[in-house]
Amino acid sequence: MSEQVTRILSGITTTGRLHLGNYLGAIKNWTKLQMHAETFLFVADLHAITTDQDPDELKRNILNAVITYLACGIDPEQACIFVQSQNPHHAELAWILSCVARIGWLNRMTQFKDKSGKNKDNAYVGLYTYPVLMAADILLYHPTHVPVGDDQKQHLELARDIAQSLNRKFERSILTVPEPYIVGEATRIMSLRDATKKMSKSDESDYSRINLDDDEDAIIKKIKKAKSDSEAISLATLGARPELNNLATIYAACTDSTKTRVIEQFEGKGFAEFKSALYEVVVNKIVPIANEIKYLRNHLDHVQAIVTQGNSKAAELSVKTLAEVKQAFGLKVF
Fold this sequence. Notes:
It is a single chain. The protein has about 325 residues and is mainly alpha-helical. It is about 55% helix and about 10% strand. It is built from 13 helices and five strands. The protein has helices at about 20-35, 45-50, 55-70, 90-100, 105, 110-115, 125-140, 155-170, 215-225, 240-255, 260-265, 270-295, 300-330, and strands at about 5-15, 40-45, 80-85, 145-150, 180. α3 packs across α12 (about 270-295), α4 (about 90-100) packs across α7 and α9 runs antiparallel to α12. The radius of gyration is 21 Å and the shape is globular.
């Protein structure tokens, strides 16, 4: 890792149980990054309420997210794990930054159009403005780099634009302008039922994803039922076959290999043989995580202590950032 990567920050929205895509696209990389850079990892529960959530389910999702971070190998001695809503500085800085951001910048954000669909007039304001909250999430902690996949690059660019605009406004470097940290080829894991769509916590079909607390039987059943075709495995056709591409990506990420090597290993063979090998490597990767999740659910005092410590550490840093921003605006009188 470059010496310039000194602090990273990332988080996952709590709209459901975390799944294989969250692990391979984000958490797996965090476990490596935490050993080389100061690491802040949060549970993005305020972002979850941009759409309707059942309160009891949201509470469970917040707790399960923290538990899953730990079960996947995030070490609280190396990384600060905290819950977004427990730090009011996020919401306060988001309001101030909304007085720096431009309407035109938000109008260019593609995810609002995707999530609101044809009923954008009935969407919550938070769904439109949440990229500003995301900018606050990032800029509060002065990260040098933010791990991003393809679908988050635009949000980081907005955070960079806001930071640069605020710094120019007051003619000094108040906010750190973070760089993207691009992870490997497993940054985007697709649905097992429709490989043209990203694997999602909110998909109605549980067979579209492998949850990180699934047991061996569930994993095998889901991979067997994963959409495929009748053609033989072939490197020449990989680009035109999204299901093959997705399953090869999962296999490669679980074995620290590449899609090309995976396809070459199964060249000319059928999906049945490939899936049999695939669910073996996925089981080996996910079942230990699922077992650790079960253990931690029975030791909630330990989990609570970690969150309390993380919330405190995060607030110590963010309060300084917020104070400096308020001072620059003339909002800090005493």
